[in-house]
Amino acid sequence: MRILIAILTLIVALMLYVRLAPTQVERWHTRPVATDPIDRQEEGGFLAARRITAPPAEVLRALEQRALATPRTRLLAGSVDEGLLTFQTRSLLWGFPDHTSVTVADDLLIIHGRLRFGRSDMGVNKARVLGWLASLGPLTEPL
């Protein structure tokens, strides 16, 4: 019985840590870089870049609206005027935070989603980034 209580206590402590650990905004609010359209899976993240077919501010505004419509997502830092937005999306059960930074460089919309804890996001960041891109429709060119 003591072992079960110890295991449950450890699980609750880990859940609380994941949900309550402070976020170092300056660590996550960084401008992603790409020079060409790309989809790149990374350990614990995903980077995508697409050519835009509308003014950068219009594309960023549309993406901001789509991102904020994503469940459990909030704007962590930045603005359309700054040209850099960073969002935090938490998983439903554990509340694991993923951070997604978005910018426009020249004619490229660049989106970089990455996890904070662990090494594998099981494709969650890729699905989110590609979903956001798909929602932009004619504002970006397909890969």
Q: What Rg, in angstroms, do the CA atoms define?
A: 17 Å
The number of helices is 4
CATH H-level name... which superfamily?
A: START domain
How far apart are the first and last residues' alpha carbons, in Å?
Answer: 56 Å
The CATH architecture name reads: 2-Layer Sandwich
Strand elements, count: 6
Characterize the structure shown.
The protein is of the alpha+beta class and 143 residues long. It has one domain: Alpha-D-Glucose-1,6-Bisphosphate, Chain A, domain 4 (2-Layer Sandwich). The chain is 34% helix and 30% strand. The protein has helices at 2-20, 25-28, 56-68, 124-135; strands at 38-42, 45-51, 73-79, 84-90, 97-105, 108-115. It has a six-stranded antiparallel β-sheet with strand order 1-2-6-5-4-3, with helices on one face. A hairpin with a 4-residue loop joins strand 3 (73-79) and strand 4. It is elongated.
